Task: structure prediction
Amino acid sequence: MDYFIELFCSGLTRGAIYALIALGYTMVYGIIGLINFAHGEIYMIGAFTSFIVATVLSIYGFPLLAIVVLAGLAAVVWSSAYGYTVEKIAYKPLRHAPRLSPLISAIGMSIFLQNYVLLAQTSDFLPFPTLIPEFAFMEPVAHIVGSTDIVILITTTIMMLILTVVIKGTKVGKAMRATSQDRTMAMLVGINVNRIISVTFIIGSALAAVGGLLIASHIGQINFFIGFLAGIKAFTAAVLGGIGSIPGAVLGGLVLGLTESFATGYVSSDYEDVFAFSLLVFILIFKPSGLLGKAETKKV
Amino acid sequence: MMDTPILKISGLTMDFGGIRALNRLDLDVHAGEIVALIGPNGAGKTTFFNCLTGIYAPTAGEIILTPPQGGKSISLKGLKPNQVTEKGLARTFQNIRLFSQMTVLENVMIGRHCRTRAFILGAIFRNAATRREEREIVEMSYAILEKVGLAGVANEFAKNLSYGAQRRLEIARALATEPFLLLLDEPAAGMNPQETQELDRLIREISDDGLSILLIEHDMKLVMSLSDRIFVMDYGKKIAQGVPSEIRSNPAVIKAYLGEEVDA
Result:
């Protein structure tokens, strides 16, 4: 039973991170109908930024809490700046182009950012400092669920709650929902749609950056390629839950994380990805719009 | 300054490839007027609205907006739809375009977006100014809903309203942007006679509040009863203009609508 709970907890942690990144995919898709393939790279840049800041600060002997907060803030700001810029450079000029063009542009951006980090940093795996300590009060259950898992779960939950409040209750959130429902009409009620799109990219990037910091300190190493697989997995989670749906992204992330965790634990860790993607194929066959997605009705 | 029209359009032309949808159109609306734009299907009326509101960029011509009470004249050419809305022009659509996944109240509140300042940080930290602004938006939105008779269903999803109510909600949303000129694109389309009558009353009330109205409409009874002046279009051109009684007896208008009389 302990083993089951352990797998369950690690699945939840994994799923929470997937969900955090998947939110970026699903929000951007909801607003401009684009799969932002460079999103995984934004997450990777978040991990690198927090790595650099954390390393520098620990040399100067900052306390751990200050390091975590400052590294997190730096990652959020820096990744958001990247997300914002990527949108302005690679997607905005293609706003009225056929759908395939921005998609190719997104893949190009993804490859560019990977190689940029490869050249600017290194191709080696870098050891990520342990930012989340083992809490003493977690000692009795430490063999089942680690402190990192708890911190990740709590942080992602808080981030998602904030996001929900922003989307449901604020003017920006309302404008985002309006833009995703009918962009032209949104402009006609006075919404600056370009600004809303920028805000969407910034929020998505910020969430990805937090994900980058959390998972890097969980796994303990990073390199320029981590964004690729994380991006694909998060994209899977978004599609699984129904792309464009925010609760769907969270649900999809959790389902994917749990599936992987149980597959690894009970079958073999070699089959982790096989199970994840089989699940995707299975769901797409029986519910093509995803778990919480709405079937799209085309206007004739 | 009494005579400066609040909207003056001269030589407006819109080409789609080789098709001239609007051909050197002139039109003006004065403060407080209700002006109707009529014409057979495909005459270019909606294209005309789309040019005015920045959805299309006209090929040629000038659109000058002059706010009443001595504001400065502005050219609307080249402005984006959200900028046009900020200048004081709002519209509704022929086919209803509400934010159907939002509540009635939210649909109206969103119209206030361009008139308020607080942004994302204020929204998260909820300082006093933001809260006050939010309260004012809600109060004002309720007042508008009251006017169009939808206050009772404020928390209903827009998609669950009846057809006539959805049309009124579109008008409410447009009013929320505080326009001085309201463009209505076939507001009575698909309404039953009773709903049309209510609409007639609503448009008069809006007009009495000091707004100018430019409307496209096929319901001739409504057009004739409401309008101060009427413009008639056919094939992208203006073929007549005048007060309702003049239009009713204008041979060019009759020809456009009914076709030419065949002499044996």
Residues 2-32 of chain A form the longest helix (31 residues). The two ends of chain A are 55 Å apart (CA to CA).
